[in-house]
Amino acid sequence: MRRVAWMTDLHLNFLPPEKASAYFDQLNQSQADLILIGGDISEAPRLILDLSDLAARVRKPVYFVLGNQDYYRSSIAGVRAQVTQLCSRLPNLTYLSVIEGVELSPGTALVGHDGWGDATLGDFEDAIKMRDERLIEELAACDRNSLADLLRRLGREAAEHIHRVLSYALQYYDNVCLLTHVPPFKEACWFEGAWADERHLPRFACGSVGTVIQDLMSMYPRKQLTVLCGHTHSPGYAQILPNVHVWTGGVDVGLPKIQRMFWVP
């Protein structure tokens, strides 16, 4: 059996380097065999340094996706290219959004993608504004109409990746763990102790990925899917189908922590 530590929304950019390094040392000393990180690790100007430091100090396999704030002060395309290149040089660091998946055990696979608040749930016309529109290059270039189109395209991109990798995993594994940043369902989109409202849902949930999950898992009722997500900074659990369980991580910015430890048989 392998013991897994899952965390999300580390926001290491709010920590001085020495505190981030101390946190990495704690992870290395934990009893986990591998680490899952669900995005919002840092911000683009510091992201590669933080990931490199993590890989050097945490002598365990680290699997991760990125969150919207990892792209702040840069571009989606640029950050993804830099992170992919970094992972090609560091064998214990794996960016799930650009691979087909990983076998955690003979019965369990791990897949993942960043996801995105894709404007498919809730009321986009009255939706909250986010710093994404100022701090992510591709979004900053949009007006309101083109922003909605881009968000939906990013959601479809995530859904297409999840459809491909989850379809494959379900053929060969009884259990699948899906790591993502943005909650794929309203029922998993916790915000301040309740479900996010119609103004927050467009930016806090990725409905395109949720649709793919429900469609595929309905076809495989005897297989089990565990989804791990974050983004909203509020913890919660939701059972979407009898075989689909979603955990959403809660966060105190500046105090990164392990959300859950669990065993993979």
Task: Considering the chains and any ligands shown, give keywords for the structure.
265 residues; alpha/beta; 13 strands; single chain; globular; 36% helix
Structural description of this entry:
The protein is an alpha/beta fold and 265 residues long. It is 36% helix and 23% strand. It has a six-stranded mixed sheet with strand order 5-6-7-10-12-11, with helices on one face. A five-stranded mixed sheet has the order 4-3-2-1-13. The chain has a two-stranded antiparallel ribbon with strand order 8-9. Helix 1 packs parallel to helix 2 and helix 2 packs parallel to helix 3 (76-89). The chain is globular. The relative contact order is 0.18. The mean pLDDT is 95.
In brief, what are we looking at here?
This protein has 265 residues and is α/β, with parallel strands linked by helices. The chain is built from 8 helices and 13 strands. The protein has a single domain, classed as Purple Acid Phosphatase, chain A, domain 2, CATH 3.60.21.10.
Question: Which strand-content bin applies to the residues?
Answer: 15-25%
Number of helices: 8
What is the string of SSEs from the N terminus onward? EHEHEHEEEHHHEEEHHEEEE
How many distinct folded domains? 1
Secondary structure tally: strands: 13
The name of the CATH architecture is: 4-Layer Sandwich
| Main beta sheet | 6 strands, mixed
